[in-house]
Design goal:
Elements lengths: L14 H9 L15 H16 L10 H26 L16 H11 L4 H8 L4 H11 L7 H12 L12 H30 L2
Helix pairs in contact: 2-3, 3-7, 3-8, 4-8, 6-7
Length: about 210
């Protein structure tokens, strides 16, 4: 199926070209994606990406505007992480080994921005305290302090503890504004990585 019209809004760069090639009989492997996936897998990943890019906000009765905005940011990160995970499977990567595709997007600089937002370390300490694996705790610390390019543990940890209940926009005295800003820059980072990877595959096809 060739995707066109309004359904192309908020899709990755180059998706119309890739979608057309899939419809013509090309396989994802032919186009630089994993040999193990199907066109349906790639379509689902793009649908997840489009959903997170199209998400605006949640509407909540009897909540302050700041808290509602904080929950909106957490939900957006939840959706964005889901899209990113789907994309990783399409390129044969996992969260643990995706560092090479992150480096061009200045992840260490991003970690610095998060530290500037969370100057008292209230938010990140709350997130770290809810992780059970010592390995993950150390990985999160390395990411937070810019000791690794693979900062995806920041997004996946926030998504995990939000999905399982402990994390709210006010958790541990964190301000909703800090949650909004941290989630926003993480979301932008992840969608930028996915978009750039799609764009690079289309560029290779044009050579």
């Amino acid at each position: 199926m060739i995707v066109s019209g309004p359904s192309l809004r908020n899709t990755p760069s180059g998706w119309p070209r890739i979608s057309a090639l899939l419809a013509s009989g090309k396989t994802p492997g032919d186009l630089g994606f994993s040999e193990k996936i199907t066109p349906g897998d790639l379509n689902r990943a793009v649908s997840r990406y489009r959903l997170c890019r199209s998400f605006n906000r949640v509407l909540l009765d009897s909540y302050s505007k700041d808290t509602e905005a904080g929950y909106s940011a957490l939900f957006k990160l939840f959706l964005t992480w889901s899209a990113f995970e789907c994309f990783l499977s399409c390129v044969g990567l996992t969260r643990e080994n995706c560092e090479p595709i992150l480096r061009n997007h200045k992840p260490i600089k991003l970690a610095g921005k998060i530290r500037d937002i969370d100057k008292e370390q209230v938010f990140w300490l709350f997130v770290q305290s809810r992780l059970h694996s010592p390995k993950q705790k150390q990985e999160l610390e390395n990411a937070y302090y810019g000791k690794t390019d693979n900062i995806t543990i920041l997004a996946s940890s926030i998504r995990h503890i939000f999905a399982h209940g402990p994390l709210t926009p006010n958790a541990n005295g964190t301000s909703p504004e800090a949650v909004i800003n941290i989630c926003s820059i993480l979301c932008q980072f992840l969608v930028d990585v996915v978009d750039a990877e799609f764009k690079s595959r289309v560029s290779r096809l044009a050579r």
